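Quick one: co-fold with nicotinamide-adenine-dinucleotide.
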Amino acid sequence: MAAAARRFEDRVAIVTAAGSGIGAATARRLATEGARVIVADLSATRARAIAEAIGAPADRLAWLKMDAAEPAAVEATVELALSRWGRLDVLVNNAGYGEPALICDTTLASWNRTVAVTLTSVFLGLKYGLPPMRRRGGGVVVNTASVSGTAGDIGMAAYNAAKAGVINLTRAAALECAAQNIRVNCICPGGIDTRVTQVLAGDRADEVRRAMAAVHPLKRMGSADEIAAAIAFLASDEASFITGAALVADGGLTAGTGLPPFVPH
Ligand SMILES: NC(=O)c1ccc[n+]([C@@H]2O[C@H](COP(=O)([O-])OP(=O)(O)OC[C@H]3O[C@@H](n4cnc5c(N)ncnc54)[C@H](O)[C@@H]3O)[C@@H](O)[C@H]2O)c1
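Sure, here it is.
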């Protein structure tokens, strides 16, 4: 068996919302490939559990409880990377949040929290993460957007609007940072089978998983590891000429027009 790639040797990474799902898989992937990683999550329990499961020595891995929508918490997360390891090379802004509701039933509080956790968190990550990258002469940011930022969903308007914002914020940041050797990209996953499926669907989770699988041309949901692989690619030097991109990883979900086939298929 081929040895695992070590694309992040000597690099320092922060992954937000890393206590579960895509963020946890990304933290694990980066650590496995040699990065020193901060596992940051709103839930201390989840962040600690993932850090322990990754199992890297304490001088290579740290976890902390933080709210990615809170400026002081984001600043403190960046400061932790700098105080512990003196640099920040890779920032994965992965937090996102949505509460299903039709527009007229969406409370202002729910709208504001969705935008704060999904979009403002990315702005804050950039605001506090870019200066140390500039000082060192480069770095990489990967933001977790969604196919829900490229098209609408019934009952997810706030999330749709916020994820669309993440995609265009990514482009604006890429332009601003290109001259400083900082690349900024985002990933647009389709339906990924993570904790959120269970949380949103409750005891209908299996039914929702089947329905989700059916609408993807590959006839299954994606896994967190598959998205982590795409994030790691964007964060690595293999993607050295890619910036401002929104990489879709959705099993073909957004490849079609939605029109029925014109010939038997
Ligand atoms: N699962 C999918 O189908 C899917 C599809 C497209 C995009 N995404 C996006 O991927 C990202 C991760 O989702 P997931 O499916 O891995 O979810 P998940 O539920 O498995 O994990 C989410 C993690 O985020 C943490 N979190 C929530 N709010 C936070 C905050 N304010 N600050 C810090 N951490 C916070 C939670 O504690 C949890 O550990 C989100 O941005 C989500 O919108 C998910």
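If it helps, The chain is about 45% helix and 15% strand.
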